[in-house]
Design a protein that fits this description.
- There is one protein chain.
- With about 270 residues, this protein is mainly α.
- It folds into two domains: about 80 residues, no CATH class; about 150 residues, Helix Hairpins (Orthogonal Bundle), CATH 1.10.287.
- It is built from seven helices and no strands.
- Helix 5 runs antiparallel to helix 6.
- It is rod-shaped, with a radius of gyration of 43 Å.
- The two termini are about 65 Å apart.
Length: about 270
């Protein structure tokens, strides 16, 4: 009776505008065997799973689905209780067509939903990758600014040491001047020359002081930029945690634990 139903379905397909034409790649025996092996692995035969199992992606989906439907129809008839019921051929044909159409619609809906889910997951992955790229760029920029700040700090230290050395030199020169004032009048000319030297060094000290003030100003600007970058980074982290919570990737309890780690000024509201 199984062979009779199969022959009836093939005749019906051949009489309906080419629907039963054999595929150059697929045949009923190949698809039925793939369905049996998929079910042995606790799987469900679909167009996608059969193609993946056979490692064959050419040919018509409708042809594969038709053979899957005939497999289910044959399997259903084989599981009867043994009653020798003769089903009229027109009814067999109608039932087979209805069963095949129902399975096709169900599988198409599942495949469509699966494609939609895959697209959504791909979009989420792309957005997450973009966010990670922005965070990486911000971190690299922060490291670069931190390096510049360290360089300015070293330059400031060198300038401070230079000023300290010059101040010490002034003190020594002043002491020498005091001693020279007590010397004879013939040293007055030498004293005048030394005073001129002190004045020249005072000019250099003033220039060094201005350079030091400029370095201090640049250090303050870089520190403000670093603070802004750190605040932006914390805000971005808070936004990502909020998006993860809204997408259901973390629980509210996990979200609240994570935001407690953030500084209070960058912490979003608890959920």
């Amino acid at each position: 009776m199984s062979n009779e139903l199969t022959n009836t379905q093939e005749l019906e397909g051949q009489s309906s505008g080419g629907r039963g034409a054999r595929s150059a790649v697929w045949n009923e025996g190949l698809v039925h065997q793939a369905c049996i092996e998929i079910e042995k692995q606790s799987g469900r035969p679909t167009v996608t799973s059969v193609r993946r199992h056979c490692n064959e992606y050419s040919g018509s989906n409708s042809t594969v689905q038709r053979y899957i439907s005939s497999y289910h129809a044959t399997k259903g008839k084989g599981s009867t209780t043994g009653l020798d019921m003769e089903i009229p051929k027109p009814l067999q044909t109608a039932l087979g067509a209805m069963w095949s159409e129902a399975l096709t619609l169900a599988n198409n809906e599942v495949e469509s939903e699966r494609e939609s889910i895959d697209q959504q997951q791909a979009a989420i992955a792309a957005e997450r990758k973009d966010i990670e790229g922005l965070l990486t760029a911000a971190e690299l920029r922060f490291i670069e600014l931190e390096g510049q700040l360290n360089t300015l700090e070293r330059e400031r230290t060198d300038l401070e040491q230079l000023v300290s050395d010059q101040v010490q030199a002034i003190r020594e020169l002043t002491e020498q001047e005091h001693q020279q004032r007590q010397a004879a009048d013939d040293l007055n000319h030498q004293l005048q020359l030394r005073e001129d030297k002190i004045e020249s060094q005072a000019i250099e000290i003033e220039q060094g002081r201005k350079q030091l003030e400029k370095a201090h100003a640049q250090t303050g600007q870089l520190q403000a930029i670093a603070d802004d970058l750190a605040a932006a980074k914390l805000a971005r982290v808070a936004l990502i945690m909020t998006e993860l919570l809204e997408d259901g990737e973390i629980s509210k309890a996990g979200y609240n634990q994570l935001i407690d780690v953030l500084p209070e000024e960058a912490r979003p509201r608890r959920r």
